[in-house]
Amino acid sequence: VHGGAWAIPDECAKACVDGVKVAAQEGFSVLTRGGSALDAVEAAVRNLEDNTVFNARGATLNADGEVELDAIIMDGRTLASGAVSSVKNIANPVSLARAVMEKTDHMILTSRGANLFAESVGVASIPTEALVSAYERTEWEKHKNYATGVKEDFNSAHDTVGAVTVDCAGNVACATSTGGIRNKMAGRVGDSPVICGGYADNCSGAVSCTGHGESILKVTLARLIISHVEQKTVAEASQLSLQYMAERVHGAGGAILVSPSGRWAATFSTDRMAWAAVDREGLWYGLDPNERH
Amino acid sequence: VHGGAWAIPDECAKACVDGVKVAAQEGFSVLTRGGSALDAVEAAVRNLEDNTVFNARGATLNADGEVELDAIIMDGRTLASGAVSSVKNIANPVSLARAVMEKTDHMILTSRGANLFAESVGVASIPTEALVSAYERTEWEKHKNYATGVKEDFNSAHDTVGAVTVDCAGNVACATSTGGIRNKMAGRVGDSPVICGGYADNCSGAVSCTGHGESILKVTLARLIISHVEQKTVAEASQLSLQYMAERVHGAGGAILVSPSGRWAATFSTDRMAWAAVDREGLWYGLDPNERH
């Protein structure tokens, strides 16, 4: 799992690392109880969404002072996926994304249509106040102008969360959820609900991306990593793709990747990314480049 | 250019072919007047959007009886792109997509946010009645239930339009625009505004896809074609990718593709696709498999 790739300040560092460790263990416990890869990534991302440290329950505000959330979930067995974009005031967008996948003929529902669908399947709305921390509201007041804000603020205002996993049957799945960039325009959709920001295919692996959404979209980062992994190691595939993104479109970000055989990598070109993984040898986690415990 | 890949009935066949021929010439005339690849695909797609034969001005209605339009444009020089999804009552979504690319820091704007942006850049709204033909309204009344409708109706209710081009400087661009699937849920987003439904990169080529959006997303069709074209001919790259989509997710569709050196292909796995192309040798067009005039 990851908790977003950005210049995580020291005062949030411990909470971020603790948060991803708990979420990784939550996802793993679903697998040990016999759950599917899909169940595990959903559980891990719900756990991250519920943690006010990350940009989901602790969501960013758009230029109009509203919360608009994006999420995707994808099943590597069938390539089926579900996504919601610009949905308002939902506690767990990842679960709504799963409902889109399982209960509609579509893959992406956006804005009011996504909220109408949530109502129709009994997913309750929650007030904006419940989604936004006092810290976020103060930061938002400071940076009301996105145009100037994004440059100085890029590294402090977008902490997407995500999970990838492989279950004992060799099925891979991925899920990603975010509140997007602070002071984004109303209706702005980043990479998270788009299949290029996350991808899962039993033939090659599962990826969840984080970072500057517009850059991730330009190079279709998740798809690029998946195409590299057919010929490279998981670490090389992620590094090469992030390097290409830096060179071609000057974008920074991070990605977590797992192969159908259980090899995994957590890679980033930002200052930091909080990540954690559970495999046969136990729990691994890190925050700074090359840090791995 | 293409006017959508589906089982085009004989009574629309001539109008569709005439429409794509005019649009291809329109795009080419922009190039001969010194316009860029981006100008040419925008002009060609605007021409198709303005033609009531196709699903743009002659847009489909969603389950609520509303028109929601998706469009993307992408510049192969920089990988910059702009897109709108679920935007209501706009005559030329492709031009609004271009404004998103050129006038915002974002790549995708959706629903109300996209309409607010349209207003802010002076793009006028037009009434739903002006976007919907009498034929579409009658068909919509017939098929109000999407769940049963889509199966029988899949081949008759989604005619996306698109264009790809390369200019004399070797710059490629693509654009796609659609009203989506008849009786779709409110807020449904297909492949068109997503970078996987169209892609342009000066290093490899430009693609515009059409067909069953959910299937195109699952296999990231445009990106898949682009990755094949590095090692295959343009025709092989498109055919292989459409074949993979048929085998892996049982989806049908079509794609147009141009390489930076000017080689092009118009390929489809549906019954028919109206397409036209202009190259040094003149105007080419077709409708049925293997038909090429």
Automatic annotation (TrEMBL), chains A, B:
GO terms for biological process: L-asparagine catabolic process via L-aspartate; proteolysis. SUPFAM superfamilies: N-terminal nucleophile aminohydrolases (Ntn hydrolases) (SSF56235). One of its GO terms (molecular function) is beta-aspartyl-peptidase activity. It holds the Pfam family Asparaginase_2. It comes from the Eukaryota. Its EC number is 3.4.19.5, 3.5.1.1. It is an enzyme of class 3 (hydrolase). The active site is at 160 (nucleophile). It catalyses: Cleavage of a beta-linked Asp residue from the N-terminus of a polypeptide; L-asparagine + H2O = L-aspartate + NH4(+). The record marks 159-160 as: Cleavage. Substrate binds at residues 188-191, 210-213. This is Isoaspartyl peptidase/L-asparaginase.
